[in-house]
Every structure is written in structure tokens, then in C-alpha cells.
Amino acid sequence: MVAKISHGSNLYGALSYNQEKVDEGLGRVLATHLVIEPADGAFNTAACMQDFERFMPSHITTRKPVIHVSLNPHPDDKLTDEQLTEIGQKYMERLGYGNQPYMIFKHEDIDRQHIHIVSTRVRPDGTLVPDSFEKDRSNKIRRELEEEYNLIPAKGQKQGEAWQLTPVDMAQGNLKKQVTNVIQPLAQMYRFQTLGEYRALLSLYNVGVEEVKGENNGKPYRGLVYSVLDGEGNRIGKPLKSSLFGKTLGIEALEKQFGTSKEAIKADGVTAHTRAVVADTLATTRTESEFRAALQKKGINPVLRRNAEGRIVGATFIDHNERAVLNGSRLGKEFSANVLNERFSDISHSEDLQRPQTAQTIEQDNFRTPSAPIPSGSGVPEAEPQTHRSDDPMGSILSLLTPETQGQDNKQPTIKRKKKRKRRYGRQI
User: In which residue ranges of the chain is pLDDT below 70?
Assistant: First the structure.
């Protein structure tokens, strides 16, 4: 069983994320503690918030009063709902949350049963539940529960398999739901410090994300759009505005998350740990494919981006064990794109490095011409799709996102942009 603990500031967001799974039929509430269960069994976030707030003082000083735990048994561990409930309750009791309000949710949106637990770290008297050596204590509790319930130990599991989501597949339809089931859990669970790192994480599951900004009548606007990627990283279908998925997945919320992720990564010493694993793997492998395969066995996905000439122009490492995304340069100069390109270029004609002839290159920051306008009702302004030029990808997406202007001339604002290198992006696993 794999246990993951996250501290946060948004109690409503944590409850809402789990309740949405329940509302969509992708989850259920297994148990509550100090939270009133409705007579009809239909929970709602607002009512649950009121119950949590009854046990919190009117003023709190900590910046992160929320704890969000996920417990993930191995797929071969077949547990009943009663057993999952017991495991969740025992875990919280032993971690020191036996007197705190909490809710246990079971998620059924991926091919393994797992539970999420939401609680508060602040006691009614304003003191915090002790979190000293929390990670060590969690591991001890996890091992005890593995033995009590005869579960496959975390060390017996394949590294990084605990949170494998289903990649988005255009052929399956219902793209909004598919994209939601990818971006919501990833944004909650992983730590990343830039939009580029977030983009690399999403690319593993065939999802792209771009920032769009411009100016209309002297008023600037900016927002995010998500899109579906094919197996080679090409954007397909129409982009989806971030507002379709809630404010927590918009540009402003993510920028706040960049800062908190930076603090958490530094506090947990994640960079040093990931650097050691990548360095050891690089030293013991010869080709790029060997390097990639060896890292994946250790729970790390390398995302290497190339330009039209095949040169590596970007490297990002996604550590599923630490739930962190790190640009190669963050790990050290020896893991930068230039160094990795030189390292693997000497054997570029190796059979291991042959790339499919069907692979296409795309411009990392540009969209191909969308087939339809972006839906309305978000922070990204409305579109005037008829004005774009089909032979200019950047012009297409920017014109699509430029607000409609009043008046008969309907002139579009001029948006300055820099020319981008062409890069290959997308799933590389």
C-alpha cells in the first residue's frame, strides 16, 4: 500500500474535489468522523464545510490547515468497503487525527481501488496536530496495516504504479470528462514550479496546456486552454477553456501552486533524491532508450523534447515516487538538454534511437488550427474564428481567443509574440 500526505490551505477545494467524484458516480463516501451524514445519504460540500468549521477556532495562524491523505493498495489486494474504511480509520487514529473531523472517500475512477481522506490540522483550541516526523510515522503505520490486512508491501509494488491514470483517448469521446479525470488529480497530487513542468506532466496522459494572453481596447487578458494530444504530441480537436474545469485549474491558481510547490520540494529534499536516482541511471546506461527504460522502472518518467532537427531542446523528469516534476536544469547542469543531447548524439544512429518515421514536429507554444471555437463562459475572452489564417498556427489560436469588439469595423488587437522553436512534445513513455 502506498500512502501520500499533502498539506494545503483550501478545505473547500479538497472536499469539492472528492465530492465531484461522488456526484459523477466515480466515488462514494465510505465513512465520516464528526461530520453529520445526511438522512438521505446525499452529501454536499457546503454542509460538510459547516461541520468541519464547528471544530475549528474562528482565527487560525497556520497557512496550511488542511491534510489530504491518499491510501493506495496494490491492484492485487482485494478489499471490501468495510476493510477500506477500517484501514482509513486506523490510519487517521494512529497518525494523531482521532479527535479531528474527517471524511473517507473511495475513488473508482482508475483501475485500482483507493481512498482519500480529508481532515483539518487545527484543533478546536487553535493548536496544531503534531506533524513531527510525519512521513516516518506514516510509513510505520502503513507497514503495520500491511501486516494486519495481509497487503502487498509498498516495497513489493512496482515503483510509481500507484497513481497511473488512464490517458485521454479522442476515440472514446466525452473529452471534457476524460481531461477532467486527468488534470484534477494530477494538479492535486503533484508538485511543479512552472507551467512547462505542469505541461510535461500532463503530456504523459495525452493532455496539453497553453497560456493565452493579449489585449483588447487597452485591457489585458490571460488564461489557460487545455487540449487533447495524439500519441505523437500533436494537438487534436478543439481546445477547452480552463473555466470548464474550475478556478483551481486556471492560471492564477496554478501560479500560486508554483510557489507552494517550490517551498514543499525544498523542505522535503526532493531535488537531491531525484538527482541521485537520475545520476546513477545515467552512469549505468548507454543509450537513450536504456536510460529511459531504467528510469521508468525506478518510477521516473523522462520527457525529452526535440526540435525539427531532432536535437534535444528540453528535459524534464517526473518523479512519481516523490510526486514532483523537475526540469533537468533544476537537477544540475549535467542533466540539462544540451548535455543530454551531446551524451546521446554520439550514438544517434543506434538501433535504440531510431524514431518512427511518422513522428511529426509541433511548435511547443502554438496550437494547430482548431476545428471549432472554444466554448464561452471563462476567463479567456470570446472568439471570432472567421478572421484567422489557416496557414499560421499562432495566428489561428490567437485570433480564436481574441475578444469580439464592438462597432462595425470589428478590428482585432495586435498581439506581439516571439517566434518559437519547433519541438516534439507529448507522451514519451
Answer: 110-111, 155-164, 346-429
pLDDT digits (tens, 9 = 90+) for 334-348: 999 999 999 988 554
Pairing mode, strands 324-327 and 219-229: unpaired
Spatial distance between the Cα atoms of 109 and 70, rounded to a whole number of angstroms: 14
Nearest C-alpha neighbor of 270 from the set 329, 331, 316, 328: 331
- Do residues 302 and 295 touch, judged by C-beta distance below 8 A? yes
User: In one letter, which amino acid is 361?
Assistant: T
Buried b (16+ CB within 10 A) or exposed e, 21-58: bbeeebbebbbbbebeeeeeeebebeebeeebeebbee
* Rounded CA separation 330/240 (Å): 31
In this prediction the pTM is 0.56
The whole-angstrom distance between residue 385's C-alpha and the CA centroid of its chain comes to 30
Cα angle, residue 352 at apex, residues 347 and 355 outer, rounded to 5°: 100
Q: Which of 415, 5, 424 is nearest to 211 (CA)?
A: 415
Domains and CATH numbers, the chain: 2-156 (3.30.930.30)
H or E element: which one contains 211? strand 207-216
